[in-house]
Each structure stands twice: as C-alpha cells, then as structure tokens.
Amino acid sequence: MNIYSCIPSPDIAAHCEKIGHVFNPLEMAVIVAMCGKSLKEKHSAWREIISGYPDMPIHKSLNFDAQESLHEYLRGLIAHEEKQIAEFYAPTDGAVFRFGLLWQNSNGWSDDECAFSSIDKAWSAYREEYGESEKDIIKVKIEKAQLDSVDYAHKAYMRPNGELLDINVYMDGDSPDNLDMIFIHLPVPFERGDVVVTPRDGDSEPRVLSDLPHWLSGRVKYEDFTSGITGDGSDLIPYFFVVDEDGFLIRDHGVSRDLWELRYYHGELNGQNRFLKYLSQYIKIGNNGDIDWLLNVFLKFRAEAKRDELDRLFGGWYLELHKDTWVRNKESDADNTECILE
Fold first, then answer.
1. Which H/E stretch holds residue 143?
2. Which is nearest to 184 in space by CA: 323, 334, 56?
3. 46, 280, 316, 333: which sits with the fewest CB atoms below 10 Å from its CB?
4. Whole domain around residue 78: which residue ranges?
C-alpha cells in the first residue's frame, strides 16, 4: 500500500516519502480515516491492512478506548458503516430527506429548507437547482429523519457527483470510537515562519505558521501525545498568525483536521496580507530583528487597507475631497516606505 498517497497534504506526503518514514499499521489505519477518500476506498484500504500487515493493539487515549486487536476493530468498523449505509438507503415509512451544501470558502453548511419523501427526490432537487455550480461545492449532505420523531437521524456526506464520503448517525451509542481521535506522529517539512494555508472546507487564507505539536518541547512532552497519555487527535493542530477580517493581526489555531491539510502557500499576498511576508522573515531570523521596523510595515499596510476601504465605500469622492492633504501625505510616506521595506 502506498500510504503516502493517502495523506491529504501533498507537501507532507512528499516529505514523508522523501525521508522514507515508516508508519505502523495503526498509524496507517488513522491516515486512511483522515484521507478524504470515499468510504468504498477506505474500506478497501482497511481490508488491505487487515490482510497484509501485522496485528497490534490500540492504546487508550482521551477519547478512544483501548483495543486488543487493530484487525478486529477495523472489521467491526467496516461492518458498522456498511450497516449504516444499508439502513440509510433502505425504504422507510415516514422518512423525510433534506439536503445541505458546503460551498467553497464558506463558514458552514447551507441547509435547504425543503423536505422530500425519498433520497432520489432530494438528490434530483439538488441537481436541478445547483448542478451547474458543482465546481463551487465541496460536499453534499443528505439527512434522513423520521416524521414526528425525536429519534436519531442518518447523515450521509457525498461528493457533488454522488460518491459517498462518510455516513453517521446522530446520537448513535453503538458507533465505534473514531480513529481520528488517535494522535499519531506525522512528520512535516514546515518551519516556524513559513507562510502556509489550510484549505479545509474551502478555507484558503494565507497565514504564518507559529507552532505545531512537534515543537512543544518544554511545555508538553510530545511523546505523551503519541502514547495516549494526554490529548487525542484533536491536538493535531497548527498555530498561526493571521490578518483577520477587521485588519488586525491575531494568533489563531486550527482544528483537528488542519495539520493533515497544511501546505505551503504559493499564491500572491495582497492587501494587508503582504505584511505576512515580513512577519515570516522576522520569525525566521529568531525574533532578533527590529520590532519598530516590523510595526511600521504593519501600520503602512493597514493604512493602505483603510484608504482602499474608504475608496470602495464612497466611490472616490472622499479621497477627492482630501486630495491636497492626501498628495502631501503620500509624498511624505514614499520616503519613509523606502526605508521601511529595505
């Protein structure tokens, strides 16, 4: 099995393959769980792990109970998900279906208000209304629920072409523990100060990498994460500096899937995001640079962003009103800017 091809981040996958990093069967099973492939492909990969790799126990972690056999766990997981798939597609009296969409660069699901009497009708309604927008949609969710019931609902997550990615049952106590709750060591090529992106659910904003679990030495033992003594898969997160929507520089952290998706940012840095280039340089020289220089660069880009915002809001008349003052300030700023960016 080429497990490197299952790692969502192409940069991390290439790095692991280049250094020849070997993952044990449990780590391989976790990577398959996080890979973003279809359920059919995941089940095939897990069956290959069962038939082609040694069995091993699964250690206990914060949100995963210990298991004596990885192979038995995977067999049970596959059987459970296949049962859920069969129940989802089985005709059920009193069932209604709704669909929701996850769009590129959206902050969450957009649920349609209509309910349908069958999966086919819900899918047809989605295709009729949004089929031409398929390239802008990341996932489609179809929920199956019972009329006049507070019982659990099935939720199936699909690609826009209908390929099944995941299925779960809300408040289903019989579900096996999730493999993505296991923390594993994932070698990365990144360094502090790299400009990166986490394109999870369409999020593609550039940001400067400030920390990873790998680098927590002295505060938390990294080995405690990988052994399950502390934390779980939700701690596989990066930390960043990012310019927020209000134009402020903030420190933010990702969510449990972000490290798997993390990759270098290769696009252009526009607007206030141009500051990230200089912040990156500042971090990489060990924070021993001139903080005044860094602050002046940030203030310059923030002032430009405010000017551009006023121009958009007032259609240029605001700048025309203050034209003489603006020209004088612009000529003065030009000399300072050359010094700042040297």
1. strand 137-146
2. 56
3. 316
4. 3-87
